[in-house]
């Protein structure tokens, strides 16, 4: 896809490296990508902070809004107008003409609805309305985005089943994998300095620690096996750190650079995904599932739908509902983590998915939409754009 792309996201580019980063970095291989973040509030005049990521070739755009004297740092109708002005400045500054609008954040319609992109894509990676602190207007904005979008993608099959009735051109794209990035973790890599002194066995997890994290489950596991070490890597958001269990055998190592993750995983004995079973996890398709498997580690998860099918049903991931079940599976896995038959099954499955394949398939859907719109526009011009005398009228050709 050679068009420019403006991606409106609720996630910071420099936050946890996940689906948006994987896909936008691939889109940037053939066209300019502008990753438009949610605003930050400062004491300076309104402006855009523009940063070019030289590794991923993505231009990260962050609106900075003056908030001097305001009661709180909350986006409202006035701030949406100010963001719209800054967005228009970006388009003029970079001469963005033929472009695709790509949405992760339906609320971004509040300041971008006036744009005239060649196509609108909604990559619905999560059921955002089920997340903690979701805006009350989010559901209505998503309905509006669904009516405007030319094509919709979902972050997993469970989410696809829930959303497919709202759009005729919708496709599921579960989490994929950059296998070559995590594969080196199958060997013994240089141990991270903040992990090297932690005894074995080590059960690890990386990702955002938020309302999807089952605090009681983790506490119970740590109580049941005080000699096992539980390692958690990632930022704590939307929940109070004081509520996390503080057992001596639980280690919170904080947020790490994505490039560091294979070094940490290589030193783990097992990977765990202790997700809570609640509204915020009903539709998730965790990217870490194939990442842990690509690192050659056995994985135990709570029964998340898109983990159970296919990973649990095909025997690639252990599924447990209680701490006792986690422990039982872990004890078995600790003795079987080099099973060649299991690893062969994992590798065969992983060979069928990748972020490159996902982007290639998404791109084909977008190209089809662009071609269909171009054909429709051309047919309209042929019918409406010629006078009886054979002279073409002036018609705005912008799709």
Write structural notes for this entry.
- The chain has 399 residues and is α/β, with parallel strands linked by helices.
- It contains 13 helices and 15 strands.
- It has helices at residues 19-27, 77-93, 109-112, 138-148, 157-163, 179-182, 215-224, 261-265, 288-294, 305-312, 323-336, 340-350, 355-384; strands at residues 4-8, 33-36, 40-42, 47-53, 58-66, 99-103, 119-124, 151-154, 170-172, 202-206, 229-233, 250-254, 270-273, 299-301, 317-319.
- The strands form 2 sheets. Strands 1, 2, 3, 4, 5, 6, 7, 8 and 9 form a 9-stranded mixed beta sheet that branches.
- Strand 6, helix 3 (109-112) and strand 7 form a beta-alpha-beta unit.
- Helix 7 packs across helix 11.
- The longest helix is centred in the last third of the chain and has 30 residues, at 355-384.
- It is globular, with a radius of gyration of 23 Å.
- It starts with a strand and ends in a 15-residue tail after the last helix.
- The model is unreliable at 387-399 (pLDDT under 50).
Record keyword descriptors for this entry:
399 residues, alpha/beta, nine-stranded mixed sheet, six-stranded parallel sheet, disordered C terminus
**Sheet with the most strands?**
9 strands, mixed
Give the overall form.
globular
- Tell me the structural class: alpha/beta
- The overall pLDDT average reads 92
H/E topology pattern: EHEEEEHEHEHEHEHEHEEHEHEHEHHH
Termini separation: 16 Å
Q: What proportion of the residues form beta strands (DSSP E)?
A: 15-25%
Binned, the helix content reads 25-40%
Note the total helix count.
Answer: 13
User: How many beta-strand runs?
Assistant: 15
Flag low-confidence runs. 387-399
Gyration radius, in Å: 23 Å
């Amino acid at each position: 896809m050679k068009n420019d792309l403006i991606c409106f996201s609720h996630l910071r580019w420099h936050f946890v490296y996940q689906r948006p980063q994987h896909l936008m970095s691939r889109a940037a291989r053939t066209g300019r990508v502008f990753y438009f973040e949610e605003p930050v509030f400062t004491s300076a005049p309104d402006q855009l902070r523009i940063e070019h990521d030289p590794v991923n070739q993505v231009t990260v755009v962050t609106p900075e809004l003056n908030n001097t004297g305001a009661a709180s740092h909350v986006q409202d109708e006035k701030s949406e107008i100010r963001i719209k002005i800054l967005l228009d400045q970006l388009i003029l500054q970079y001469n963005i003409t033929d472009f695709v609008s790509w949405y992760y954040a339906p609320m971004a319609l509040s300041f971008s609805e006036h744009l005239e992109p060649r196509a609108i894509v909604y990559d619905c990676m999560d059921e955002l309305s089920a997340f903690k602190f979701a805006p009350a207007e989010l559901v209505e904005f998503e309905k509006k985005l669904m009516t405007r979008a030319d094509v919709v993608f979902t972050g997993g099959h469970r989410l696809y089943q829930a959303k497919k009735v709202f759009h005729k051109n919708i496709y599921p794209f579960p989490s994929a994998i950059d296998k070559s990035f995590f594969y080196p973790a199958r060997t013994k890599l240089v141990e991270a300095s903040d992990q090297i002194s932690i005894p074995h066995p080590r059960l690890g997890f990386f990702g955002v620690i938020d309302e999807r994290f089952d605090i009681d489950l983790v506490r119970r596991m740590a109580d049941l096996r005080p000699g096992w070490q539980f390692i958690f890597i990632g930022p704590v958001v939307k929940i109070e750190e004081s509520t996390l269990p503080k057992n001596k055998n639980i280690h919170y190592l904080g947020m790490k650079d994505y490039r560091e993750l294979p070094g940490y995983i290589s030193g783990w004995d097992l990977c765990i995904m202790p997700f809570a079973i609640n509204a915020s996890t009903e539709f998730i398709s965790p990217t870490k599932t194939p990442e842990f498997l690509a690192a050659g580690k056995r994985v135990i998860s709570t029964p998340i739908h898109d983990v159970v099918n296919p990973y649990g049903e095909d025997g690639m991931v252990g599924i447990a509902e209680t701490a006792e079940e986690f422990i039982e599976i872990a004890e078995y896995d600790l003795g079987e983590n080099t099973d060649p038959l299991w690893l062969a099954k994992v590798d065969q499955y992983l060979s069928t998915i990748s972020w490159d394949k996902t982007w290639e398939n998404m791109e084909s859907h977008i190209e089809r939409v662009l071609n269909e719109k171009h054909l429709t526009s051309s047919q309209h011009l042929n019918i409406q754009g010629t006078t009886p005398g054979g002279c073409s009228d002036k018609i705005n050709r912008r799709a």
